[in-house]
Amino acid sequence: MSSSPQAQAPSPGVVFDTLQAYQRSVALKAGIDLDLFTAIAEGNQTLSAIATRIQASEKGTRVLCDYLCMMGFLVKQGADYTLTADSAAFLNRRSPAYLGSMANFLMSPHIAEMFEDITGVIRHGGALPSDNGALEPEHPMWVEFARSMAPMMQMPAELIARMFAGSNAITVLDISAGHGLYGIAFARHNPNAKIVGLDWANVLEVAKENAAKAGVTERYSTIPGSAFDVDLGSGYDIVLIPNFLHHFDPATNEKLLRKVHAALAPAGFAVTPEFIPNEDRISPPRDAMFSMQMLSTPAGDAYTFSELEKMFHNAGFARSEMRELSPFPQRLVVSYK
Amino acid sequence: MSSSPQAQAPSPGVVFDTLQAYQRSVALKAGIDLDLFTAIAEGNQTLSAIATRIQASEKGTRVLCDYLCMMGFLVKQGADYTLTADSAAFLNRRSPAYLGSMANFLMSPHIAEMFEDITGVIRHGGALPSDNGALEPEHPMWVEFARSMAPMMQMPAELIARMFAGSNAITVLDISAGHGLYGIAFARHNPNAKIVGLDWANVLEVAKENAAKAGVTERYSTIPGSAFDVDLGSGYDIVLIPNFLHHFDPATNEKLLRKVHAALAPAGFAVTPEFIPNEDRISPPRDAMFSMQMLSTPAGDAYTFSELEKMFHNAGFARSEMRELSPFPQRLVVSYK
């Protein structure tokens, strides 16, 4: 509060901003839900044109557009609004890389509920016993996940298939297939690949739809049920384990990984795309921050590479290595039988 | 997705981050609620010591501490956590500048409810008719505001009193006094100042408590009720209108400002601390983003200086000028009778 300049003086601004950060999520979701980005992509650049197109008041449209400018999703020139490169690529509904549906999962009531008693969850160190259990059989949250997050997963699925699909006759097991995109990308890249998708029966309906859209239905079969309980089959060249291990504690994961090890052919390997923080657990932020989300499970976590490596080792795997998935904010563990 | 480096290539990261920004608010509030910052200020720096002190699981404590590091509220050195300068100043409960109670208002259910149908609010251009009406008489939200936001308002109240309190015998009317701190700062700085606080009767109880704490009770009187309805009195040297006009439309404000003009002595002036965006409405962000919050009122807004100047002019004021309140993220309009 001195009048002399003190660039590093404590400022309450960051506390104020962070306590209101939730408004950023809400405002972006509103822009997506109102299809504001598509409206602007169509050439509506004045408030009056945008408001008419999204069927909203001019005042509400003005407040939302200005807020989106400040967050970096729109650019304001005079009184006109235009899209940024990111908004044009990912938030215009007609863009092939449209990701807007992600908001339905990332801000769904299921997810928001997890944060209602975050203090209790932190005290307890995991989901409270009263939690309604997203890990229960056939929980509808995972159908929502499969439908909403599929666009986000196109990029890593594509990157991984390019690394490993090859052209030989292979069979690939996709554990917790969800939308099915990881396995389907292998089928698209390699006409000699056969894919087996494993997930709850209700979720597999989404994977089968996506396999049909990709024209690979005749090479896509399924195993409905829990990966912990069902017979996985055997002789797989590759087992994909995308975004699954973070829901469970290491001992539970090792139990599954022993089944995976047994199901692989002698020269086979497991491919595990995951949020993997560095050993310091505070970088890179997108991977490391995921541990907060996983506190909402009974015993899951965002595991470091050394933790994952140990689980695979204890389950019988000879060797694991980490690969980057840049620019996608996840990483990959490849574990050789 | 090309392998050639493209620093400016669109990345889905910003969409992902923004849709999860609400987790930042929730995590900081959890840290405040668990008194984590006070625990570390006391010298607890290892996970085990911090967890014991805040009565939480070590895992939950680790996830929260790491998240707070990534947001810039803690520093991790090896396995130890320490406070940043901002956290030490504003989040340690024993700091005289402690602001943690702000979370109770900024993330209260009242405020969060406003965002539950933000899409409907944007379409409508203001609070929906079904809204439960924070502007209703004696709404308990404003008692919560008065108690929770007072620490945040110490700084601007102090800055404004330094500008205008002087040492002459003056009478000051504080409209929508709330916590009362703006008027009380005048009484503290000038022993010849008499203050009249105006607000709902339930809110004035908080202002009177604060006047007593400041030892100025004998110079602090009150007018309970709505500023639009009550007799304001007359002959005031200064009328304070802190953070009030943003709740109403310009015509309603002009009605109030005419009453303020009439209540001022001939050489009197009004002092209005507010969130005041620049004319572009997208800077500075803390002022400009406040317009989103005000969409939750029937017809309020974060008004630019030219809009406020016009309201004061239409109400009979001779001249208005804007002053900065730096480093506090608000500004001030001074309007001369």
Percent in helix of chain A: 40-55%
Percentage beta strand of chain A: 15-25%
Alpha-carbon distance between the termini of chain A? 63 Å
Strands of chain A, total number: 9
- Total helical segments of chain A: 17
The pair of chains with the biggest contact is: A-B, 87 and 87 residues
Indicate the multimeric state: homodimer
Label the overall shape of chain A. globular
Low-pLDDT stretches of chain A are 1-7
Please write the string of helix (H) and strand (E) elements of chain A. HHHHHEEHHHHHHEHEHEEHEHHHEE
State mean pLDDT of chain A (0 to 100 scale): 92
Indicate the structural class of chain A: alpha/beta
* Major sheet size, sense and barrel closure of chain A: 7 strands, mixed
Radius of gyration of chain A: 22 Å
Tell me the strand order in the biggest sheet of chain A.
5-4-3-6-7-9-8
Tell me about this structure:
Two copies of one chain form a homodimer. Chain A has 337 residues and is α/β, with parallel strands linked by helices. Helices cover 44% and strands 16% of the residues of chain A. Chain A has 17 helices and nine strands. Chain A has helices at 13-19, 22-33, 36-41, 47-54, 58-70, 85-90, 102-106, 109-114, 118-124, 141-148, 150-164, 181-189, 201-213, 250-263, 285-288, 290-294, 305-314, and strands at 74-77, 80-83, 170-175, 193-199, 220-224, 236-240, 264-274, 319-324, 331-336. A seven-stranded mixed sheet of chain A has the order 5-4-3-6-7-9-8, with helices on both faces. Chain A is globular. The model of chain A is unreliable at 1-7 (pLDDT under 50). Chains A and B meet through helix 1, helix 2, helix 5, helix 6 and helix 7 of A and helix 1, helix 2, helix 5, helix 6 and helix 7 of B.
